[in-house]
Amino acid sequence: MATVAVFIALFVLIAGLMIAIYFVRRSYEKRLRPPAPRHVLVPANEQLFMQQLGDHFNDRCWLFWNVTLHDLLRIGTGTSWHEYEKHNMLLERRFSCVICRRDDFSIQGIIDFVPDNRSAFDAPDHIVPGLLLNVITVTEKEVDDRALESLLLAGFPHLEALFSEPIPSLANCRISHGPTAK
Q1: Cα angle for residues 115, 73, 62 (degrees, 5° grid)
Q2: Which residues, including other chains, have CB under 8 Å from residue 175's CB and lie 6 or more apart?
């Protein structure tokens, strides 16, 4: 009789444990659902830039839009970044597009799109002293003039292998280098 009571107690305990696990998993499932995409209004000039840039590259690269400097550098909460102002600067400074290789996610180019009604953004080394990132600044007029390909090649010649079509001759462009680069 005692063994039957032990088996019944074990059965009730296992059944209770399985029910508890079921409810815990259901509650996590509700919290861990993938986020629904947000509808974002993108100005027409930025849409044109994104479309032109996307049309130029083949399927061997990824284009990431609106990337913060914080995300780009993957800076955690190190001791020098506990300063509220610097941390905010890392989150506020955004690059229009970061071009990465699809196979290893290595950064191939960083682009800032500057509409005509806005001034140029701060250079990355202004926020993180000593940081050397080549960033090409593309204006709205240059996108309208279809000079994007030549600007990209002037700043990042290695990108030609990732282009889906031949490139016209190079044009002048502004490339911001770190303080020691000439």
Answers
A1: 65
A2: 134, 135, 136, 137, 154, 155
Q: Which helix (H) or strand (E) covers residue 136, if one does? A: strand 135-139
CB–CB of 142/151 below 8 Å?
A: yes
Same domain? 87 vs 128: yes
Q: How far, in Å, CA of 153 to CA of 109, rounded?
A: 10
Q: Measured at the alpha carbon of residue 145, what is the angle toward residues 139 and 149, in degrees to the nearest 5?
A: 80
Residues 29 and 52 in one domain: no
Distance CA 164, CA 57 (A): 5
CA-based nearest residue to 113, from 158, 51, 37, 182: 51
| Residue 37: per-residue pLDDT | 66
The whole-angstrom separation of Cα 178 and Cα 176 is 7
Range of the domain at 153: 44-176
How do residues 15-47 score in pLDDT, each as one tens digit?
999 999 998 888 777 666 666 666 767 778 888
